[in-house]
Amino acid sequence: MSLKNPVIAAVLALIFGPLGYLYINWRYAITSFVIFFIFTAVIVAVNLPIPDWIKLVILPVLAWKAYTICAVYNAMLETEDENINSFRSFPIAVFAMTDLLIGIALAYAVSIGLYIGVHLLINGNILKGIAMVILGTPLLAWVANLVFGFIAVAIDAIFQTKAENIFRN
Asked: CA 7 to CA 20: how far, in whole Å?
């Protein structure tokens, strides 16, 4: 096993989205596609908008998580952690990607809240726009964290093995 460059992982995820995770491991790429499916399914089921520009908000979240995964992997490799072999397993990839799910949901909620608030301000609805930015955006973020956090915990419980979630420690 060799060290992975976190910057390369982040750039690949930023440019190629979930395909960029192939640099880390094919299991991470597959689970990132599954996470995107789950995220999209929930958003569509609730009938929330998915604007074209949302990818510009989500891709940096993918890059952040790819960087974090490589940093954890490198730290485990350098300290000769006994769990390094499980790093390439599906349960560990799922743990990483459920964190990504929450990150994507928060980025989505904040960007949608700010977009609506700014749109209201531009259209002359000053009080509604300020209320959306100050109250609505944090409320959307809280709801997204609650809903997608619950989904992430449920997914983690399904894939729980004797390995611990190294991304939350």
From this structure: 12
**CA end-to-end distance (rounded Å), the chain:** 22
Q: What is the pLDDT of residue 168?
A: 56
Opening angle at CA 21, ends 15 and 23, nearest 5: 95
Q: What is the pTM of this model?
A: 0.87
What are the structure tokens assigned to 64, written together?
Answer: 């952040």
Give the other-Cβ count within 10 Å of 97's Cβ: 28
DSSP code string of 97-161:
HHHHHHHHHHHHHHHHHHHHHHHHHHTT-HHHHHHIIIIIHHHHHHHHHHHHHHHHHHHHHHH--
Q: Which residue ranges make up each domain of the chain? A: 6-159
In terms of phi and psi (left: phi > 0; alpha: psi -120 to 50; beta: otherwise), the region of 80 is left
pLDDT along the chain (169 residues), means of 10: 90 96 94 94 92 93 95 88 79 89 96 94 93 95 95 87 58
In the block, residue with structure tokens 């100050």: 134
Q: Which residues contact 40 (CB under 8 A, 6 or more apart)?
A: 50
* Distance from chain centroid for Cα 84: 23
In sign, the C-alpha dihedral spanning 153, 158, 159, 163 is: positive
Residue 161 pLDDT: 65
pLDDT number for residue 166: 59
